[in-house]
């Protein structure tokens, strides 16, 4: 039976220039591979070593990119290795099969959201009203499933995020601060549910996962084993669980370490 590896992408396997955390002398910096171009500019990177590890992982397991990105944002990424048959986008709102969203899964998700939490329009209206134009740069809705703000972090009051989280909690939503983005996501919209569905379809008897943010916690807990890097929301709160391995590495070298760990677990199974 195959092993299934469901991994978050941004700040777990791939990194923007601002998130690389290259603390070594320039002459000792790892060689980088650009894996995403946006508006004709390089946007995301991994080390060349990580690229080879991901290629090997794709040959050894069912690799499932698992992201909060929209379908359009995900399809900009050009990962090394075999093209994944399955990908999870919009935090579990879409399961892509050979790049195309599965309509039955999406219908199940939207029905669950309508039944279990406040509507997106209510949350979007609150964000528009409550966010300060001084630090908000963009308001966005992702695939008609959740909302997020792009902000200037140095101008953002942390109490505002905490207050938003309390407001959202009472309506069945959760809040996550990742880099310059503040996400408001319905609680029933989870990466873990989508991972379980892909595991069912592939017959996987071992599930492995990796991620760095609050929106990855359910994914890591649902897997047989999980890994998180030394940066991100989960590291900032010292979040852990019995089957979770907290790695010390930060930045792009954490992505390399995570892939080495995942590949080792697959080969050792």
Structure in words:
By secondary structure, the protein is of the alpha/beta class. The protein has helices spanning 48-60, 71-74, 103-116, 120-130, 158-169, 191-202, 217-222, 233-236, 252-268, and strands spanning 3-7, 32-38, 41-47, 62-65, 86-89, 94-97, 100-101, 136-142, 146-151, 173-178, 181-186, 206-210, 225-228, 244-246. The strands form four sheets. Strands 4-1-12-13-14 form a five-stranded parallel β-sheet, sandwiched between helices. It has a four-stranded antiparallel β-sheet with strand order 8-9-11-10. The chain has a three-stranded antiparallel β-sheet with strand order 5-6-7, with helices on one face. Strand 6 and strand 7 (100-101) form a beta hairpin. Helix 1 (48-60) packs parallel to helix 9.
Features:
single chain, 269 residues, alpha/beta, five-stranded parallel sheet, 26% strand, globular
Which helices and strands, and how do they pair?
Blueprint: E1 3-7, E2 32-38, E3 41-47, H1 48-60, E4 62-65, H2 71-74, E5 86-89, E6 94-97, E7 100-101, H3 103-116, H4 120-130, E8 136-142, E9 146-151, H5 158-169, E10 173-178, E11 181-186, H6 191-202, E12 206-210, H7 217-222, E13 225-228, H8 233-236, E14 244-246, H9 252-268
Parallel strand pairs: 1-4, 1-12, 12-13, 13-14
Antiparallel strand pairs: 2-3, 5-6, 6-7, 8-9, 9-11, 10-11
């Amino acid at each position: 039976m195959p092993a299934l590896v469901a991994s978050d992408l941004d700040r777990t396997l791939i990194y923007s220039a601002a998130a690389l955390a290259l603390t070594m002398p320039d002459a000792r910096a790892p060689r980088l591979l650009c894996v995403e171009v946006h508006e004709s500019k390089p946007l995301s990177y991994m080390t060349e070593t990580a690229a080879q590890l991901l290629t090997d992982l794709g040959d050894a397991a069912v690799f499932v990119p698992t992201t909060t990105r929209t379908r359009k944002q995900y399809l900009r990424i050009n990962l090394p290795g075999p093209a994944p048959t399955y990908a999870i986008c919009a935090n579990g709102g879409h399961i892509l099969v050979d790049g195309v969203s599965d309509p039955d899964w999406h219908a199940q998700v939207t029905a669950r959201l309508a039944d279990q939490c406040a509507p997106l329009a209510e949350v979007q209206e609150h964000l528009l009203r409550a966010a300060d134009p001084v630090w908000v740069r963009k308001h966005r809705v992702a695939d008609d499933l959740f909302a997020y703000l792009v902000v200037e972090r140095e101008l953002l009051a942390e109490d505002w995020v905490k207050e938003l989280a309390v407001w959202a909690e009472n309506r069945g939503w959760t809040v996550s601060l990742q880099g310059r983005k503040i996400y408001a996501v319905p609680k029933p919209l989870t990466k873990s549910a989508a991972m379980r569905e892909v595991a069912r379809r592939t017959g996987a008897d071992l599930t492995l996962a990796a991620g760095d943010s609050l929106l990855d916690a359910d994914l890591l807990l649902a897997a047989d084993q999980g890994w998180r890097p030394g940066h991100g929301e989960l590291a900032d709160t010292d979040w852990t669980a019995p089957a979770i391995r907290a790695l010390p590495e930060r930045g792009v070298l954490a992505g390399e370490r995570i892939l080495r760990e995942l590949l080792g677990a697959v080969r050792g199974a």
